[in-house]
Structures are given as structure tokens and as C-alpha cells.
Design goal:
The protein has three helices and five strands; from the N terminus they run ββββαβαα. It is α+β, with helices and mostly antiparallel strands. Bound molecules: coenzyme A (COA). The site of coenzyme A (COA) has 15 residues, from strand 4, helix 1 and helix 2.
């Protein structure tokens, strides 16, 4: 018997400020952001335990950052997973801005924390 595998789908959900990854139509994970002018500030990535360790976070972030490029925006990697991903994927270096104390204060204000 062969197991059916389907390609995960990544979508941007603007009103929730996040990208989601769907497997067989089920949401398996998300990466959340807020926009600060032309910067898309990524602050949290999570994949549900049931889907962990399959490389889904990597697919999700790859597609999200590709969408940032297509949108003509820039990346600010507050999320440690996104920061780690960028260290391995130099093709996004030209789009990446540093995480500054000012950006972190701004994010805390926007998130009300
Ligand atoms: C981190 C997380 C999103 C990874 O999801 P996943 O689909 O299992 O990840 P992938 O299979 O694509 O990648 C695994 C990689 O994530 C890395 N990773 C795991 N937890 C991490 C963390 N907290 N910060 C940075 N990287 C992390 C692993 O070291 C591994 O790296 P490698 O590819 O170099 O070996 C998932 O474990 C999760 O939801 N964790 C809880 C929330 C969290 O800590 N989010 C990250 C900070 S916001």
C-alpha cells in the first residue's frame, strides 16, 4: 500500500498578519509578522506538534520570505527560527534588515506587551 502525500500549501492571511502552511487542508503551522513601513517584522513561528520535524517550518519561511521579496518589502528577523533560517539562506541577505532595539520596542508596543 502506498501512502498518499500532498504538497503543503502556504498562504498569506493579511487580516491575521501571518502566513499559514496547510497540509491536506489542515493548518499545520504559521509565521506571524507585523508591517512597519516597508519592513515585514517576523516575530513568531510555530508548527503544531503533530507536524513537527518534517521540514514544514522551512517550507513555510522560504515561501513567506519569497513573498516578501515579491511584495518589494524587507525582512526583520526577530523570530529566532527565521533568524536561523536566514543564516543558512544567503539569497535573502539583500532583503534583510537588522533587529534593532528600536524595532523591538516598536514591536512590543504593537503587540501590547
Ligand atoms: C521551531 C519550529 C517552528 C520548527 O518547526 P519544524 O517544522 O519542526 O521545523 P523544520 O523541520 O523545518 O526545521 C527544524 C529546524 O528547526 C530548528 N529549531 C527548532 N526549534 C528552534 C527554535 N526555537 N529556534 C530556532 N530554530 C529552531 C532545529 O534546530 C532544526 O534546525 P536544522 O534544520 O538546522 O536541523 C517548531 O519546533 C515549533 O513550533 N516550536 C515551538 C515554537 C518555537 O520555539 N518557535 C521558534 C521561535 S518563535
Amino acid at each position: 500500500m502506498t501512502e498518499q502525500t500532498t504538497t503543503p500549501v502556504v498562504r498569506r492571511v493579511d487580516d491575521r498578519h501571518r502566513y499559514e502552511i496547510l497540509v491536506d487542508g489542515e493548518r499545520a503551522g504559521l509565521t506571524a509578522y507585523r508591517d512597519r513601513g516597508e519592513q515585514r517584522v517576523f516575530f513568531h513561528t510555530e508548527v503544531d506538534d503533530a507536524f513537527a520535524g518534517q521540514g514544514l517550518a522551512s517550507i513555510l519561511v522560504q515561501e513567506a520570505l519569497t513573498d516578501v521579496r515579491a511584495s518589494g518589502m524587507r525582512i526583520v528577523p526577530v523570530c529566532p527560527y527565521v533568524a536561523k533560517f536566514l543564516k543558512k539562506h544567503e539569497e535573502f541577505a539583500d532583503l534583510t534588515d537588522p533587529v534593532t532595539p528600536e524595532a523591538l520596542r516598536w514591536l512590543d508596543g504593537v503587540l501590547g506587551r
